[in-house]
Amino acid sequence: MHTLLIEGGVPLRGEVRIAGAKNAALKMMAAALLTEEEVHLSNVPHISDVYVMSALLQTLGVEVNWNGPNTLRIRAKDIRPVRFGIDVAAKIRASFVVMAPLLARCGEASVPNPGGDRIGHRPVDRLVEGLRHFGVCIDYDGAYYNATCDRLRGCEYRFNKNSHMGTEHQIMAAVLAEGRSVIYNAAQEPEVDDLIDMLNSMGARIKRVEPRTIVIDGVRKLGGTHHTVMPDRIEAGTFAIMAAATDGDLYLSGANPDHMQALLDKMKEAGCRIEADPEGIRVRRGESLRAVNVITRPHPGFMTDWQAPFVVLLTQASGVSLVHETIFPNRLGYTEQLNLMGAHIELFNPPVPDCGYEWNEKDDSPDYFHAARIYGPTPLRAANLTIPDLRAGATLIIAALCAEGVSKVSGVQWVERGYEHFVERLRSLGARIEESLPAEATA
Fold first, then answer.
1. 117 is catalytic
2. pLDDT tens-digit readout, 104-159
3. What is the CATH topology of the domain spanning 22-228?
4. How far apart are CA 97 and CA 31, in angstroms?
5. Taking Cα atoms as reference points, which of 360, 291, 356, 353 lies closest to residue 320?
6. One fold for both 3-19+231-442 and 22-228?
7. Which member of 78, 87, 117, 277 is catalytic?
8. Boundaries of each Enolpyruvate transferase domain copy (predicted)?
9. What's the CATH number for 3-19+231-442?
10. Would you say 207 is a known binding-site residue?
11. How many CA atoms lie within 13 A of 258 on its CB side?
12. Rounded CA gap, 338 and 347, in Å?
């Protein structure tokens, strides 16, 4: 496991191409199980999560090949609903979404309880409950969810809370089900609509009839397709925040402002300069940064994955900012390391907002904090940092780029899960980063 040595205080400047969306590509790879024909996905990011999903699909008997720099060829002609390793599922939460396609194609599936980032309890109860409405018999043996069905039957289902992955999984179950399915309180995230576009190009009949209602008429068979994965709005937001935090000037080639309007609006409110055109977005700090208040919400609200990087930017803003996390119950742990770097951040539990929390009440804990006050501006200083999860990893790297001195950042493998060639791209923008390999790797 290597670490990074990052010299802070260097403004990032130049142009960076935004890679394909991790959270779209992984679900599309799973959706390729729904057809015997070839599926070609372009703009797929070279990240470790994609490699893990590729290996998982191959375990199921699927052909997966890179057919160009960022293009995957997937053919699930002869698939086997075999149990894949718990160690594989522990690496990526999206591993669970192969369950619906396996049930549609094979009538059975055994899928481990998934893993992912350590940001609070993230149950799959909404996905499991949704499957039961299709007539699936499913039980949990302490490690695997075991499911069987003769044929999926269309149903009406309402999510009691927003569920991004749950909506995608429900759609994948419905496309080959007998009859019509209606999903109420369906997630509105752009990645969901990108998956819908892909499946419709394969012959599915899916329509979003209202912002949070999706109707699916099941078909007997899906065909192959060529589909381009949407740009990653999380990555685009990370680079946008990085430009402002380092007092730099970045052009985000390929970024779609329609996917990230809530973030861009808050950045403008904080004093950043944002210029969007048909090809991308230019981001600069502006004359000064001002404190702002943020509450994370499902799309089209302020995305939870932007929350942590945005807090770094707010440490450089004048005044007291308030950030309230409502999507995940334990996503503010990274602030302890920012405080060690000189930030002044206080965690607390405010009254529950009118919109409520998106997590299950039983998954909360008295040890979790849901909001932060950020006092600024505070100069950041270099420190030894340990990355605990993917988005906090990008956050600590931004902090190191802003800090005075050289920071040592370990746990970089978390960042490699979701950001394509991250270090190389940062260097191309002027960042001063060296990789430090462990002694045994250099022996």
1. yes
2. 999 999 998 875 434 334 468 888 999 999 999 999 988 899 999 999 999 999 99
3. UDP-n-acetylglucosamine1-carboxyvinyl-transferase; Chain (3.65.10)
4. 8
5. 291
6. yes
7. 117
8. 7-426
9. 3.65.10.10
10. no
11. 8
12. 12
pLDDT for 168: 97
Which pTM was predicted?
A: 0.94
Copy the structure tokens of residue 104.
Answer: 């549609």
Q: Would you say 305 is a known binding-site residue? A: yes
Separation CA 61–CA 11 (nearest Å)? 48
Task: Report pLDDT for 89.
Answer: 78
pLDDT score, position 413: 84
Domain ranges of the chain: 3-19+231-442, 22-228
Question: How many CB atoms neighbour CB 92 within 10 A?
Answer: 22
Would the annotation count 22 as a binding residue? Answer: yes
